[in-house]
Amino acid sequence: MADGHGHSRCVKLTKDQGPVDDITPGELNQPIQVPQLNIHRCVECGQVLPESYEPPADEDWATGIFGCFEDAESCYTGFFCPCVLFGRNIETLRDDIPWTNACVCHAMCIEGGMALAAATALFHGVDPRTSFLICESLFFAWWMCGIYTGLFRQSLQKKYHLKNSPCDPCLVHCCFHWCALCQEHREMKNHLSDNAETSMTVVSPPQTQEMNTCENRESATAPSTGYEGHTNLELQPV
Questions:
Q1: pLDDT number for residue 184
Q2: What is the Cα–Cα distance from 11 to 156, expressed in whole angstroms?
Q3: Percent residues over pLDDT 70 in the chain
Q4: Is residue 57 classed as helix, strand or coil in its secondary structure?
Q5: pLDDT tens per residue, range 144-164
Q6: Which residues are registered as beta bridge partners of 40?
Q7: What is the pLDDT of residue 227?
Q8: d(CA 157, CA 184)
Q9: Which of 53, 55, 51 is nearest to 158 (CA)?
Q10: CA distance 193 to 38
């Protein structure tokens, strides 16, 4: 305790003090980001890598761009419903994007532009007045096909370190859109099957242990004989 002349170390709380701000439960337990700990290291040697480092894209694709018939299911789906196949590819590549969202975007941008051009040519014919609308619709579908779907192909190549095959991802979708969708589906399917095989762990059951009744009797009588040997000792006075 402090005397009257000294300064007290205790703080006296009074009613005049304002209320303490409410603290949300868990607010003080948030993780702290330490930039010094977020270091990129080499998997093999552990050497520190710069932030701008990207692994080289030197892996070959499992199948070629024209190997659509190697997987009949994806071939038929990509030919008749490319938006559905594109949605499945995006859902496999990105967990945060459902396949329905990607399917609808593909159908509105690409199939929608092609359908608008076909409907204009069917109902109004191809003449100087409608040719501009037809070309604009086809150009919009072609541009969206190359940019929108090409970006996801680029993300796939970064994830599996794949090289450009046969050329830039956007240009591949502009020229071979349906074949590119089937190739991407086969590539992710092969990688998923490889990961499933490597992740399987074979655990063999332990061998069955059997003990004979004779061994049990001998093991049970062994300590008793040793103990009786000690009890037979006699103490003799000196």
A1: 92
A2: 62
A3: 61
A4: coil
A5: 888 889 999 999 998 888 888
A6: 49
A7: 45
A8: 9
A9: 55
A10: 31
Contact 174, 142 (CB under 8 A): yes
- Give the integer Cα–Cα distance in Å for 64 and 60: 9
Count CA within 13 A, CB hemisphere, residue 95. Answer: 0
Q: What is the mean pLDDT of the segment spanning 81-92?
A: 91
Quick one: which H or E segment has residue 48? strand 48-49
> In whole angstroms, what is the distance from residue 67 CA to residue 165 CA?
13
Cα(102)–Cα(107) distance, integer angstroms: 9
What single letter denotes the amino acid at residue 44?
Answer: E
For residues 48 and 39, the answer to whether their CB atoms sit within 8 Å is: yes
At 137, the pLDDT band (50, 70, 90 cuts) reads: confident
User: Which residue is it, tokens 């593909």?
Assistant: 106
pTM for this model (two decimals): 0.59
CB atoms within 10 A of CB 89: 26
Cβ 25 vs Cβ 126: under 8 Å: no
The structure tokens listed for 144 are 């969206």
Cα angle value 108/114/117 (rounded, 5°): 120
DSSP 198-217: HH----PPPPPP---HHHHH
If DSSP states are collapsed to H, E and C, what string results for 72-119?
HHHHHHHHHCHHHHHHHHHHHHCCCCCHHHHHHHHHHHHHHHHHHHHH
Burial class from Cβ neighbours inside 10 Å (0-12, 13-18, 19+) for residue 232 reads exposed
pLDDT confidence tier of residue 43, bands split at 50, 70 and 90: low
